[in-house]
Design brief:
mainly alpha, flat
Length: 139
């Protein structure tokens, strides 16, 4: 089954949050739902265009995985070289965030505690939090 562009979208809440953050700098400016939906459609079309071009580049290099450099070349070939630096910076930030998450996830594994001990500690924390909650507000 192939997806048509009608089947593709971006989360409206996420797009609305991005718009709200941008409009913070322009008090009194509003963004209608129709404008948001049009923006989403434009974003989906842009992503589709870049993805298609990057896929063509990867296939021509007999690669089975689209990499950052394919996106870089696709942007340049499609006439969007001014986006390349920002896209690569965002990709680097994303990669750094993933590394940070991996380190946090590994903390549990590196703790040296057994699953049973970790579960016991977690239960103790739950009991402590429940006791504090049941005490009510401190006057």
């Amino acid at each position: 089954m192939t997806l048509g562009t009608d089947d593709l979208s971006l989360p409206k809440a996420t797009v609305s949050k991005i718009i709200t953050e941008i409009l913070q700098h322009s008090p009194g400016v509003a963004f209608t739902k129709d404008a948001r939906d049009l923006l989403i459609a434009c974003c989906v079309e842009f992503i589709t265009l870049i993805s298609f071009q990057a896929n063509e580049i990867a296939e021509n290099e007999t690669k089975k995985t689209i990499a950052t450099e394919h996106i870089d070349r696709a942007l340049r070939e499609l006439g969007f070289p001014e986006y390349v630096q920002e896209v690569l910076a965002s990709a680097g930030e994303h990669k750094d965030a993933l590394k940070s998450r991996e380190k946090k996830a590994n903390k549990v594994g590196q703790s040296g505690l057994s699953d049973a001990e970790l579960a016991r500690q977690q239960e103790e924390l739950f009991r402590s939090a429940t006791a504090k909650f049941n005490q009510g507000p401190v006057a």
